[in-house]
Amino acid sequence: MALPRRNLTVNPEDPSAYPSINDAMAVAADEDTILVHPGIYKDPLVIDRDLTLIGQGLLNEIQLHVENQTPITINAEIYHIENISIKHSGDQESFALDITSGRGTISGCDISSDGLACISIHGTASPIIRATRIHDGNETGIMITGQSNATVEGNMIFGNQFAGIEIRDQANPKITRNHIYDRNEVGILIHKYALGTIANNEIYSNRFSGIEIRSRANPNITNNQIYKNGRSGIFFHDFAAGVINNNTIFENRSSGIAIQTNSNPEISNNRIEKNSEAGVVVSNSGQGTLTGNAILGNGYSGIEISQKGSPTIKDNQISWNGGGVMAHQQANGIISDNDLRYNKNGAFYISEDSADNITRSGNIEWIQASFN
Q1: Are the beta carbons of 260 and 239 closer than 8 angstroms?
Q2: Which burial class, exposed, middle or buried, applies to 355 when counting CB atoms under 10 A from its CB (0-12, 13-18, 19+)?
Q3: Are 169 and 144 within 8 A, CB to CB?
Q4: Which helix (H) or strand (E) holds 85?
Q5: For residue 185, how many other CB atoms are within 10 A of its CB?
Q6: pLDDT tens profile 48-86
């Protein structure tokens, strides 16, 4: 007969409670709950059964602070960790939280790391990471690899040395309703055949791109706000693909979207506006299909094509930019049925070395722009 579920209390100030989390875990059975009271706990934990750990009190007073080792390693199938501050310091070969299996939940925590990623999710592990602050990682905030289908929702991810979230090796997570911002090198890096659904996030004020997609990755990116990043809002390169739909991409310091080196995304129904340089740049043999986008008020051209870039551009509004479409340095492309009125320097600039390779039809042009 199964044992009844129990609540085990950890409180260093209470002689009737367990003095450490490991002491409680030593006697815990599957489905028990460990209630952790305020204190600084310094011993690493290995969760290898179905347990719940819940902090009792203010988050910043319940600290698991471990030096030179990973504070929590999870090898269980079902688990729940809530309201605990988890910090790794010292050894740069450790994570703050290492999840190797299962479908548990991490909720309402604060996680940072002086070592590798704040959170590493790998193998077939597919947890839910929810409503947690993930910050100041010496490398990545969250690394998702292998066959993981993790869900990352409603978190604050900031101040990590490299990517806020890194997705690789065919992982296919769902990343939704997060704020990914402030000094991450890249907001989200997706590479090495990775997939993923990136939806309803705010991705802003990262040092380089908001999202970088490379090395044959192929995500679905929809309904995000991507703004004020140090370079491009979204950067495709090295045979990347993806579906980019219904995003607002604005006020990035370089282009809204950059497509290079044989990358071929589908970009539709986005609003790409007020970026410091071009709205969309297609270069270095980049491709891509752009349909139904509003590309407005960008500092340079709405779309720039160069260096054998070869996009298909159809049914977009490309207006109030420095110029409409600029094609130069042996550019290629098909440009049809777009509204190219109201650009400061006209609808098209096409260099002599690109004229024979650009096909234009059905576009609405207004040679004399109107600016007050």
Answers
A1: no
A2: exposed
A3: no
A4: strand 85-89
A5: 18
A6: 999 999 999 999 999 999 999 999 999 999 999 999 999
Which residues, listed in sequence order, are joined to residue 257 by a DSSP beta bridge? Answer: 234, 280
Parallel, antiparallel or unpaired: strands 7-10 and 186-190: unpaired
Mark 263-272 as b/e (b = at least 16 C-beta within 10 Å): bbbebbebbb
Tokens of 220: 């679905």
Instruction: State CA 181 to chain mean position distance.
Output: 10
Are the CB atoms for 272 and 246 separated by under 8 Å?
A: no
Helices (H), the chain: 21-27
Instruction: Give the C-alpha separation, 318 to 291, whole Å.
Output: 11
- Tokens 């292998």 correspond to 146
CA atoms of 172 and 184, how far apart (whole Å): 22
Q: How far apart are CA 351 and CA 362, in angstroms?
A: 20
Contact of 302 with 277, CB cutoff 8 Å? no
Kindly calculate the radius of gyration of the chain based on its CA atoms and give it in whole angstroms: 25
- How do residues 129-163 score in pLDDT, each as one tens digit? 999 999 999 999 999 999 999 999 999 999 999 99
Tell me if 42 sits within 8 A of 68, measured CB to CB: no
Contacts of 226 (CB under 8 A, 6+ apart): 187, 203, 204, 210, 211, 233, 234, 247, 248, 249, 250, 252
Note the Cα 127 to chain centre separation in Å: 17
8 Å CB contact between 139 and 164: no
Please enumerate in sequence order all residues whose Cβ is within 8 A of that of 299, keeping only pairs 6 or more positions apart, or say none.
275, 276, 277, 278, 321, 322
Amino acid occupying residue 245? N
Place of tokens 């070395």: 353
Q: Residue 76 forms beta bridges with which residues?
A: none
| CATH code for the part of the protein at 1-207 | 2.160.20.10
Structure-token pair, residue 210: 């908001």
Cα separation values, 191 from 125, 132, 236, 238, Å: 19, 24, 10, 9
